[in-house]
Amino acid sequence: MARKIIIDTDPGQDDAVAILLALASPELEVLGLTCVAGNVPLDLTARNARIICELADRRQMPVYAGCDAPLSRKLVTAEHVHGKTGLDGPTLPDPTMPLQDTHAVDFIIDTLRIQDTGSVTLCPLGPLTNIAAAFERAPDIIDRVQQIVLMGGAYFEVGNITPTAEFNIYVDPEAAKIVFAAGAPLVVLPLDVTHKALTTQPRVDAFRAMGTDVGRAVADWTGFFERFDKEKYGSAGAPLHDPCVIAYLLQPDLFSGRDINVEIETASDLTLGMTVADWWRVTDRPANALFIGDVDADGFFALLIERLARL
User: Is 103 a catalytic residue?
Assistant: First the structure.
């Protein structure tokens, strides 16, 4: 039986690849895409999610717009990485499929209440605003979540938006604090692992060699946002952050990590949004997350290429 998931997203080129990977994988039943402000403002993330669904020829996929700002802060976006649309790179047509009328937070709450307890996994790829808002408004749903598998945070790789914070957590640290403290089973794919999944030239060429609209779009997307990370890190390619979430669901044996305590810093000017990961277990704070530290990058890209070729 396919695993039921909700993808909470702020597309983003790497979000796009994650969504395509999920839509190409019969082991996963995507119940809906919920959009949040993050990489770009909400109107663009909701637009981009529909563009991605149409690229995959999944026009019936319900797409919901959610929170347009963090719980208690002004929105910080990342056009400097993703371009002004969030999906800069290929030229893709405007979406024709509609946005759903329901707010994303209501969809998350209603879905978790309707589906069997422990049957729905939440897959946040952006700031955790929608998830935290749902948990705050309807705490009864927390125990109904099968698992939260999210991309966010960093420990050994420290920060990519500040010296100590990863972008998704930094944008809404209060939301992250709520989600990390909620008690739902949590798997975290931080920069520590995503920075080991780099789009090298042979990997980008493999996407383009598919000869499909999806393959060309993925090659163009990765080529676009590579320029920023290559310059910043001096690396051979850019990290494909968000697809690690979907790959973990499909092939968890590609990844390794530890059950540890992770706390979110919300008060410090210096380390706001830091994921304080007790990797060495030096405190007596109880573990609240499986914090992933490593990935078989070749296996990850083999999975990605095999699945995306199906679309």
Answer: no
